[in-house]
Design a protein that fits this description.
With 457 residues, the protein is an alpha+beta fold. It has helices at residues 22-31, 48-59, 101-104, 107-114, 123-130, 149-157, 193-203, 219-230, 262-275, 292-297, 344-351, 372-377, 411-423, 434-437, 443-448; strands at 3-7, 12-16, 39-44, 63-66, 90-95, 132-135, 161-165, 170-174, 185-187, 209-213, 234-236, 242-246, 255-257, 276-281, 304-306, 309-312, 329-332, 357-361, 381-386, 389-393, 405-407, 427-431, 454-456. The strands form six sheets. The protein has a four-stranded mixed sheet. Strands 2-14-16-15 form a four-stranded mixed sheet. The longest helix is centred in the middle third of the chain and has 14 residues, at 262-275. It is globular.
Length: 457
């Protein structure tokens, strides 16, 4: 198990470029299973979860090759190296023209899927194209209950059948040989991002028209729908919670570029607010950030928009807003276009050094706030009201966090603890950084380029 050793108290300065969006990359990579033709995906982040999914596709027979990035407008070649603090630009070609169906049904494949939550996104494409898929409970962050009912109910509405195999602890999802998936109307029980993505990918080959109401409309889902349309699908209502999919018989190859990761952008805003001495975040795709910048502004963070960049100057003081009637500020997660739950951990860390109090309400996952005990050990004033709510009383930078030895419980808590350690006095140690590696690309190298002192051991 690897660890980070962080020497805190060093200001960060310079330019950093966000990686490609992890969640979009997972969906787009799985979508390549829907065609036998090559599909090129650009701006794939070099992170553990994505790399494990790519290896899983290789294992089932998908041909995966590094591909040259398309030149920018004007025909000039892409830059040979990223800017200071930037990440590499991974472009891959995927061709699923000879899938190994026997391996797809093997215990080895099922066991690998159980360690990777992103593998659940393979079910929709496999069901649509091959007529069957096998699933067990997938892995991922230990942040609370993450049920798959929405996926299953959607597949069932399209005509899929389920069979539990208790001796293998798996579910077989299939379409009978005498029938096919059929378009229908469905109202999702929750606006699940992966559930919506999975059902959309299954529905592209369904006979007739499928209407999905209460669909998730996050930028990741919008990008998936645009990718599928570029492959020949017919999807309407992109960006809304009402999607209409007209079934087609086949899809073809295309080229698609993954958006910058809005969670990483938010993480860098928080980092710049805590320890920055002038940080520019390049090429953030501002129109896809939603209310993320405004959430940090409510904690007093000054953010300057310059074209498609964000510049966060040195923040001498952070002052938490109140509501118009003077009541305590509340930051709560919600489905898009609300605030993503993935950034609440970072917002908590920033709030510890602001002047004022804020209530953080984590509605979606009941275990995601438990990491605050580590911040309390570092000297933060946080009251954990219950598994879903925490009140942060800011120090106004009058009390610096203390260095500690910690362990990363999940991806987002991990980056929040790293930000806290960068601002703390002394040397901190964060164990289990494999969790951070699942979502953040070469993070210590990129932050050290800005002036951080982080060692991996």
């Amino acid at each position: 198990m690897s660890a980070f050793i962080i020497e805190g108290g060093h200001p960060l300065q310079g330019t950093i470029t966000p990686q490609g969006a992890k969640n979009e990359a997972l969906q787009a990579i799985c979508a390549t299973l829907l065609t036998s033709e090559p599909v090129i995906i650009e701006n794939i982040p070099d992170i553990r979860d994505v790399n494990n999914l790519i290896q899983l596709l290789k294992d089932i027979g998908v041909k995966v090759q590094k591909a040259p990035s398309a030149p920018p407008l004007g025909g000039r070649a892409a830059l040979p190296s990223p800017p200071q603090g930037g990440s590499g630009r991974g472009s891959y070609s995927f061709q699923a023209d000879n899938l190994n169906m026997s391996y797809l049904e093997s215990d080895e494949f099922v066991q690998k899927c159980a360690t990777l939550r992103g593998s659940v996104l393979m079910i929709g494409p496999l069901l649509a194209r091959m007529g069957k898929a096998v699933i067990t409970k997938p892995g991922g962050d230990k942040i609370g209950r993450r049920r798959l009912d929405t996926h299953f109910l959607g597949f069932k509405a399209l005509g899929a059948k389920f069979r539990h195999v208790p001796e293998r602890n798996v579910y077989e999802i299939f379409v009978s040989q005498t029938s096919s998936l059929k378009g229908t109307y469905m109202l999702l029980d929750e606006a699940s991002v992966t559930g919506t993505a999975n059902i959309v990918m299954a529905a592209v080959f369904a006979t007739g028209t499928t209407t999905i109401y209460n669909a998730a409309c996050e930028p990741y889902v919008q990008q998936l729908c645009r990718l599928l349309n570029a492959m020949g699908a017919q999807i309407e209502g992109i960006g809304s919670n009402l999607l209409t999919i007209h079934g087609v018989e086949q899809l073809h190859g295309t080229r698609h570029r993954v958006l910058p990761d809005m969670i990483e952008v938010g993480s860098f805003i928080g980092m710049a607010a805590m320890v920055g001495d002038g940080i520019r975040i390049k090429d953030v795709a501002l129109q896809h950030l939603g209310i993320i910048p405004d959430a940090f502004r409510r904690l007093g963070v000054q953010i300057q928009v310059e074209d498609d960049d964000l510049f966060i100057p040195h923040q001498k003081h952070l002052v938490v807003d109140t509501f118009i009637d003077g009541t305590i500020m509340t930051l709560a997660d919600a489905p898009w276009p609300g605030l993503t739950p993935d950034l609440l951990s970072v917002l908590i860390v920033v709030a510890t050094q602001a002047r004022g109090s804020v209530l953080i309400h984590q509605k979606m996952f009941e275990s995601r706030l438990f990491f605050v005990d580590k911040l309390i050990d570092m000297g933060a004033q946080i009251i954990l009201c219950d598994p879903h709510r925490a009140v942060v009383v800011g120090h106004d930078r009058k009390v610096t966090l203390r260095a500690q030895r910690m362990s990363s419980p999940d991806i987002r808590a991990g980056i929040a603890l790293l930000i806290a350690a960068l601002s703390a006095k002394g040397c901190s140690r964060i164990d289990n950084i494999e969790q951070i590696d699942r979502g953040y690309e070469h993070i210590e190298e990129r932050l050290n380029a800005l002036g951080a002192r982080i060692e991996r051991e």
